Amino acid sequence: MADSAVNETPSEGGTTEECETTGNIEANTDKTSEKESSIKEGSTETEGCETTSNIQANTEKTIAEKASSETSLVPESMIESSKVERKGEAKIKSQYLLVDYKPKIVSDYVPQETKDAMKRMITENGDDQPVSKKLRLKGRNKKRPFEKNPDASKKLCASISQEQECTFGDKCIFLHDINTFLASKPKDIGPKCYLFDKYGKCPYSFSCRFAQHHLTVEQTNLVNEELYEKQKDALSKRWLNNLDKDIQRLLWKRKYDFRKAEKFLKDMKDGKQTANNNGVSSIIEADSSDKTTDLARETNPESKMSDAVSKSTPQTLGCVTDEGLIALRPAEKKKIDFSNKLYLAPLTTVGNLPYRRICKSLGADITCSEMAMATSLLQGKTEWALLKRHPSEDLFGIQVCGSHYEPMTRCAQLIQDTCKVDFIDINCGCPIELVFQKGEGCALMGRSGRLEQIVRGMKSVLEIPLTLKMRTGIYGSKSIAHTLIPRLKLWGIDLVTIHGRSREQRYTKLADWDYIKQCSIAGKTIPIFGNGDVYSFEDANAFQSQSGVSGLMVARGALIKPWIFTEIKEQRHWDISSSERMDILRQFVHNGFEHWGSDQQGVETTRRFLLEWLSFLHRYIPVGILERVPQKINERPPYYFARDDLETLMASSNCGDWIKISEMLLGPVPDQFVFLPKHKANAYK
Known about the structure:
Elements (H helix, E strand, L loop, with lengths): L24 H12 L16 H17 L6 H7 L29 H14 L5 H4 L23 H4 L16 H7 L9 H6 L25 H12 L8 H8 L6 H19 L5 H7 L11 H11 L30 E3 L8 H9 L5 E2 L3 E2 H5 L17 E6 L3 H14 L4 E6 L4 H5 L10 H14 L4 E6 L9 H11 L3 E5 L13 H10 L5 E4 L5 H11 L3 E4 L1 H5 L3 H7 L7 H19 L3 H18 L27 H6 L4 H12 L19
Parallel strand pairs: 1-9, 2-4, 3-4, 4-5, 5-6, 6-7, 7-8, 8-9
Helix pairs in contact: 11-13, 11-16, 11-18, 14-24, 16-18, 18-19, 19-20, 21-23, 24-25, 25-27
């Protein structure tokens, strides 16, 4: 069948059209399972799995059958015309092409205003002309609806699941009657509980959507004592960086001890007063009144900062302690060798812990949390869920975003005090309008005085490396990253990552690796990582050798094909089969059960994040189908059918087909299920 990638960007949706997937999904799944039997178990946990000779033989047979059966769809004259080069289109072997396919709009996956427009067109023009010819879906769906958490009165109390006494007693808002809960509980998804098989005990007990595996007739939760004793610690430490309840209460009451941060903040304030008394405009005062993005107006901010802090150093009287006096020297602080490592970019929404585990198993060296807002972390909000780390993430950072040095300095201390983390990253690259208008993300690139305050403040309380990710600049016509890099080193930054696009470009056009080379030259004394359009080992080799960067960060390339890390390390194009790709999705679901839970809410949370990921995964074109290898990240495919039905289903850009894949792994969607894709074009079928 067919597919067309969502333009070239995750945020700038182009008009994407999609064909129907063929065959009965259940029948196709049976066929695929025969091929899966020849693949080694746990292929997602190894690097560079190879398809077996049986799979190759079956694949060739499938190709031949499809080629013969679809001859009428692709006449020779059309095949010849399809060989004409089209700009921005990937070259696919002619036997897989669908020529002159006419997509249709599926109204289930469009926003209400689009549905209303479709009804008006039908009313005005009748059914003579298809709506898809007159209505062209383009751009992003805004105000996307999400599933609400189930009513607390219908959820089983966690204390009942854990066979403990509820500490809230009659005041508890959750359900305590097991029989009532089981009567209203949806049917189990399958006969095997992944958590029970792995740990010997399922922590979700009666609430588990696979409960029949570990519930007795007497409604008690089974425990495999021998396995549970071995895995008890692993079960309790499925992730790190949980926010302690006592610390959360201190944050709510604003009573957390920020002594380290307060020392720097006091020095800053005293430095401002001292500078003003001498008739010199301090860096803080200058920044508070300066709203321009013209870096040329700033006058030697680093000397002002050092003078302000040095003049305000307090005299020590009385009992002498080592606090503040025997601080770690720069040489004694933790160092990380970042050179020649593959860095999985911090990715909003899709860069969750279960996804990072997949990338880690496929060869990623460095992982980083999703972007967290400093102010939300200081308030003890649910933003802390973004900071969780899996034990397999051996080199892990936390990315924070903010616009003022006070919350950013306090946040740096809080993270170092409470989290197991190897480095902290400052977000100077987020192009989102809401973030930019608050002076955060990319906006900091145009306010280097304020950026200096943030970097120096965070560095003063940290004993781990501090890194920074930014773009080429705010405007496409004015690249400024190379002017900031020497100063970032002076202020204390340990690694800079450059995304080769400006804020104005967002994710459109190609990344400017020539400019990244210029930045690499400007930062000879500091590690520079390059980011943008890395989609194959050939891209990785060319970009790194041409730019001279210390390492590569991979973002969209890892979303579309997470095995890119294996390809780069093994220097090959991996013609991954549909069954191997299905194994990766199955492993993601298992990771989701561990992270979000195997109860109804955990299953639906896993489904939502799986669907978000599938909105990128479908853009991958199998190597065996390509006429010209490798595919470039900005190349969209023409309409095509794949080598087997499952691969064809995975190539679909229609949201309805993604839901079918989720149902193969997570069972039927619940009643009133709603999922609106990120891009309007994903409503085409």
